[in-house]
Amino acid sequence: MIRAYKFLMRPTVGQAQALGEMLRDHCSLYNGALQERRDAYRHPSRTSVRYGMQSAQLKEIRAFDPERQGRWSFSSQQATLRRLDKAFVAFFRRVKSGETPGYPRFRGVSWFDTVEFPKDGDGCRWDATPHDPVTRVRLQGVGHVKVHQHRPVVGRVKTVSVKREGRKWFVVLTAEQDQPEPLPPTGIMVGIDLGIANFLADSNGGFVPNPRHGRSNADRLEAAQQSLSNFPRVRRDKRTANHRRAVEKVAKLHGKVRRQRLDHAHKTALTLVREHDFIAHENLTIHTMLRTAEPRPDLDQPGAFLPNGAAAKTGLNRSIQDAGWGVFLTILASKAESAGREVIAVDPRNTSRQCPQCGHTSADNRTTQAQFHCVACGHHAHADTVGAVNVLRAGLVRREAQPA
């Protein structure tokens, strides 16, 4: 199995400058390759440029520009070209399937923040000074950069990536590992119902509160964004010192919220995996849940619109995004695979409307957001707990139906 590790790097002033130049030159290579594809297709011959053709030009590009493109790893530049090729493959796939295609765009220097080295030892070397107690990663054109390795890396390192987040630099590793020993069985099964009032409710009657990290930091984010909006939209190299500080403050606050949300998702998923052998959850299509309310034209007054609940839907969408269900379910699946646990996603339809006692399904059973009262048998319970119980039952049915 493949596992990722992310460590903070501590470059010197000169190394940080070299890392910034590396991102700049890879961004220039990406944009140049994109421009070549655009120009070739706009030509009357409608020529299609592929990755292989652009990769074959790298040798000439490096020889023509040794001070910039020639400084960096050949394989990392191939990875950048492959990154562009993947963007085009995804674009054509969306065109064929009838989705909104989204043509690949040029990247600004501030939006190009990752360089990948496809193989450890080719242009980079993880733990390049094993005799030294301080871990270092060697990057071609940069040197040996100190790394704050807060946990051991298990397995053989496959790829190495350098990522910039604000003023911080990180190294991201992927390591190939043997399948770890599964956790000892607990004999406990659980169904979970994700929500807004509570982050999740389980079929055993437990609840995990929703931390609402985005809402708790909303006032500071709003103040920082309002301060940033006072500056004109100009290129990065034309920003004043105060403008740059305002940008960094907004980015820092967003990064804090992202890390808080990720930390909560990891801890919640780890608790579930350690305590349960089988976990069932709703198969949520979050991107469809986040659709905006459609306008309702007033037929009696041309140009006017009727109330459509857009404000309430916007608030609900913001709460769903703040909860981070998608990130949590991805982390839960990964941890369950490592621990030898079973996770099954089930159809969420009517899970909060069906009575777990008599099986009666009706929208009238859920009298409020939190209360469930069956109109057939009179069963009372918390609505989220009822949903979790039904999710568990559906998960067990689906597991039994799966071929051995």
What topology emerges from the helices and strands here?
Blueprint: E1 2-10, H1 13-42, H2 51-56, H3 58-64, H4 74-97, E2 114-117, E3 124-125, E4 136-139, E5 143-148, E6 156-165, E7 168-176, E8 189-194, E9 198-202, E10 207-209, H5 213-216, H6 218-229, H7 241-275, E11 278-282, H8 286-289, E12 296-297, E13 305-306, H9 310-323, H10 325-339, E14 342-346, E15 371-373, E16 380-382, H11 383-401
Parallel strand pairs: 8-11, 11-14
Antiparallel strand pairs: 1-5, 1-7, 2-6, 3-4, 4-5, 6-7, 8-9, 9-10, 12-13, 15-16
Helix pairs in contact: 1-4, 6-7, 7-10
Word description of this protein:
This protein is α+β, with helices and mostly antiparallel strands and 404 residues long. Helix content is 42%, strand content 19%. It has helices at residues 13-42, 51-56, 58-64, 74-97, 213-216, 218-229, 241-275, 286-289, 310-323, 325-339, 383-401; strands at residues 2-10, 114-117, 124-125, 136-139, 143-148, 156-165, 168-176, 189-194, 198-202, 207-209, 278-282, 296-297, 305-306, 342-346, 371-373, 380-382. A 7-stranded antiparallel beta sheet has the order 2-6-7-1-5-4-3. The chain has a 5-stranded mixed beta sheet with strand order 10-9-8-11-14. A hairpin with a 4-residue loop joins β9 and β10. α6 (218-229) runs antiparallel to α7 (241-275) and α7 (241-275) crosses α10. It starts with a strand and ends with a helix. The model has no long low-confidence stretch (mean pLDDT 91).
